[in-house]
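Same chain as my last thread, 64 residues:
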Amino acid sequence: MCTARNCPAWEQFIDILTKPDNIPIVGMLFLVLFFTWIALKQGLRNDRLLEEGRLDEILDEAQR
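reply #2:
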């Protein structure tokens, strides 16, 4: 374990992240990033379908 005086910043950061009470927060961060990526991907797909005038396909995608 590092102390503030003998440890580089990166090692301090990893030391804080791996403490047992912070592990769920790190997991939640990955989940938020994953679902944000999915939402943006679906939004881009819907925008492309709107530009092409294929409104019925948007409804089909949403109902799946």
